[in-house]
Amino acid sequence: MKDILTSLEIGNSVAEFDDSLEKYFVENHAFHELVNDRVDIVAGDKGTGKTALFQILRKRYGFIKTLTGVEVLAGFNPAGSPVFQKLVREQVLTEGQYASVWKAYIVALGGNWALDIAGADYSDSFKQLSKMLEDTGLLSKDNKPETIFSKLVGAVQRALSVKTAEVEFTLSETGVPILTPRVSFGAKDSNSVAEVPHEDALELLNTCLTELGFSLWIVLDRLDEAFQGFPAVEIPALRALFRTYLDLLPYKNVRLKLFVRRDLLRRIIAGGFVNLTHINDRKVEITWDEEDLLNLFCRRVRDNKQVMDVLNKERKVPLTDTELFYCIFPNKVDQANRKPTTWKWMMARIRDGNDVHPPRNLIGLARTARDEQLRIEGRTPRPFVPGTPLITSDAIRKALGKLSETRVHDTLLAEATTEVSAYVQKFRRKKAEHNEASLHEVLGLSGDELRAAVVQLVQIGFLEEKNTWKVPMLYRDGLEITQGKAFATAGSEADSEDDEE
């Protein structure tokens, strides 16, 4: 068993670190909507595959018929601190000023890419584009997002460190760049830098791309990481980005494709958003049903030739997905008659309160269970017997505890606001099921404050609302939450067990 388990590679649950992602990738509904240009905004919870979708799009777009004439350009850096994080080091700007920064970035990124492809002498339009970028300080030797955004932020820093000016200085909301004539800075003076209206700059870029025969898709991902911990910057900056998306719609050859977490999108549009219907019409949400998840897992297992040779030995027909799954895992984790199958047991425990089943959680649980089983085999080796599952119930239970602890820290607490994180922590070592009275006792809130806190906890998937509120099993072990009701009901004790889950 140990030899087979050692050969079993299930892949990494984080897309950025999975070298075999392309072999495992499932072309789901969101992928097909994107490559057929029916959507511009891809929304999904963490771990549902937004980054994986982008990586596959980036690798395959040159071979997809519907994307002939389309160039996909990453507007972000896939590794390291998100390039947009540089904005949090500056003073907080208005939404209009952030929109100016985004539009300048799109013009600079797309313009430098086009000049790198064709050169300034390609046409009169390209000469104008080169001169505009040079005059505004945004012409770059390379078109990497880090380089261009750093140039732009440098311009913001200079603009915000003005020493003297003949007129009152403000960061422009109407044009590129963000510098105005006769302004004296700490290090050097700017004699006269003309402001270029955004509409003119975008029209010029669109014209150049038309002459090249290309449409440019500029993809932005990692938006949830860019301003994390800086709410004063995050919401106005991202609202400005979505307004920029809407303002770009008339320019057919310059397209923004935005990959964003669902809860973050809710916060961005909270309180109203002009032309929200335009955003919803061009949005798709990544969802996974159980059949997709089973297929995703089995694709990864089938990529292990040595393991499959052993499992398929003496079989006349190939294993189905379900049969393959139960070659790896036992039929049940808990053997009592009313207990669910292992697949149902896993599905109930990788989901959050919004009934989202991220592939990341399934792969994380399976990988950790394999690692736990290898430790067990190291202590008490088993011979391989056909028909005996490779991984035991004990290994699965231990893996769930580790997955729960990881998701509490890297998803739940890491992505919540300070206030909401404090609410979550108050449930530690409490019961899993609550009514309004027990929530009042746990959170120390009442009335509108209690209702507002509960709404936030439901939105992030920490509480599931039915007739009562339950903490999903995904987060229980990580917070040492025990099964049962935190309140007494007629004919039952307060510590009675949950219904079978």
Structure description:
Mean pLDDT is 87; it is low at 162-170, 178-192 and 493-500. A hairpin with a 3-residue loop joins strand 5 (183-185) and strand 6. The protein has a 5-stranded parallel sheet with strand order 2-8-9-1-10. A 4-stranded mixed sheet has the order 12-13-11-14, with helices on one face. Helix 13 (290-302) packs across helix 15 and helix 17 packs across helix 18. The radius of gyration is 27 Å and the shape is globular. It is α/β, with parallel strands linked by helices and 501 residues long. The chain has helices at 2-7, 21-24, 29-35, 50-60, 95-118, 124-135, 145-160, 198-212, 223-226, 231-248, 262-269, 276-281, 290-302, 305-312, 321-328, 342-350, 359-379, 393-415, 418-425, 436-443, 447-459, and strands at 41-44, 70-74, 162-165, 175-176, 183-185, 189-190, 196-197, 215-220, 254-261, 283-285, 431-434, 464-465, 469-470, 482-485.
Taking all Cα atoms into account, the compactness measure Rg is 27 Å
DSSP helix count? 21
Query: What structural class do the secondary elements suggest?
Result: alpha/beta
Number of strands: 14
Helix content: 40-55%
What sort of overall outline do the alpha carbons produce when their principal axes are compared? globular
Gap between N and C termini, in Å? Answer: 31 Å
Query: If strands are numbered along the chain, what order do they take across the biggest sheet?
Result: 2-8-9-1-10
How is the biggest beta sheet arranged? 5 strands, parallel
Residue-averaged pLDDT: 87
β-strand percent reads 5-15%
Unreliable stretches (pLDDT < 50, length at least 5) are 162-170, 178-192, 493-500
